[in-house]
Amino acid sequence: MCTKCALTSAFTLRIGAALVSLTSVVTTSPPNSRTRAVLRPAPERRGPHGHGEPDEPYLGAPAVRKIEGDSTGHGALRNFISQCWKRGVEIELMHRAFGFAALGFVTLVPLLIVVAAAAPLNHRTFSQWIIAGIGLSGKASRAVNGLFAPSTRVLSTTTALSVGVLAVFGLSFATMVQSGLARVWDLPAARLISVWRRVVWLAALVGVLLVGADMVTLLNDSPLLLVLRWCATGVGATCFIWWTTHFLLEDRVSWLALLPGALLTVAGLVGLRLFSAVIFSPLIVSSAVTYGAVGTMLMVVSWLIGIGYVFFGAALVGRAAHESIDGHDGVRR
């Protein structure tokens, strides 16, 4: 009886020792070792065309090929578009375009009306600037021309104080443009000391618009001069937008990183010019008949919204294009 008890206790001790050793192995093993062992294919496995078919299909290679396929061709284009869309949502692109149009119409347009009335070249009114910019003719041009007063009336009612007030209000438009560009490039807000940059840029913008609008009548309508005029306008606009972004961002972004955005902005403005000449002209006529002068004004504001969308959207897409090519955003930190 004692012998049986001794054997039983020895057997029990052996089982207990085995359980303890098994428990220690389980607790000391990494938690994902089982998963890695299952996911890692065995060396002797063969593909579907090799010898020794595996019991279950091997799904590792197609998954790798799918991931690699997303980085080229349509996958890369889809990722680029998705990235631009997400950034546009983050910076509230449409809201900034509306702000561009609202501030531009309230603060910048009155200043440009006075400048156009006092312009020394060709004495063209601001309404003629708008007509040439949108590409209107006929009834649409007459409807837009009726929105603004003649140059003689503008000059007779303008004082030095009113011009100074308009210039101060124009700075709010420059501030909006500067903050929007900083948001596109994920930069902090401009410092207070950079107010002089807004003043210089506003003066440069008025000068560029003045020269660009009067350039239309400086050249004849011959095909060669027409091509030269459009080439000069495109090169000048690209240089100005390129300089605008670099100057308002306080030289915190490299010139090379800003070049795609400047080129895309000019291309977008050309496309908007062609689109507005075909679409906006009949819309302005119908809006003028239906709503009167208010309908014409709403169409002009809609055109300004398109300019703001092109300006900020092209800067955003240009940044994404530079990052995809160069691998760096070009921001100097």
Helix content: over 70%
Unreliable parts: 1-11, 17-69
Q: How much of the polypeptide forms β-strand, as a percent range?
A: under 5%
The gyration radius over C-alpha positions equals: 34 Å
- The N- to C-terminal Cα distance equals 87 Å
Overall geometric form:
globular
Structural class: mainly alpha
The description of the largest β-sheet is: none
Number of helices: 13
Short description:
The chain has 13 helices and no strands.
Describe this structure as you would to a colleague.
The protein is built from 13 helices and no strands. The protein is mainly α and 333 residues long. The model is unreliable at 1-11 and 17-69 (pLDDT under 50).
Q: Keywords for this structure?
A:
about 325 residues, mainly alpha
Q: Topology of this structure?
A:
Blueprint: H1 2-28, H2 33-39, H3 60-70, H4 74-90, H5 93-117, H6 126-134, H7 139-145, H8 151-156, H9 160-184, H10 195-218, H11 223-248, H12 255-291, H13 293-326
Helix pairs in contact: 4-13, 5-9, 5-13, 6-7, 7-12, 9-10, 10-11, 11-12, 12-13
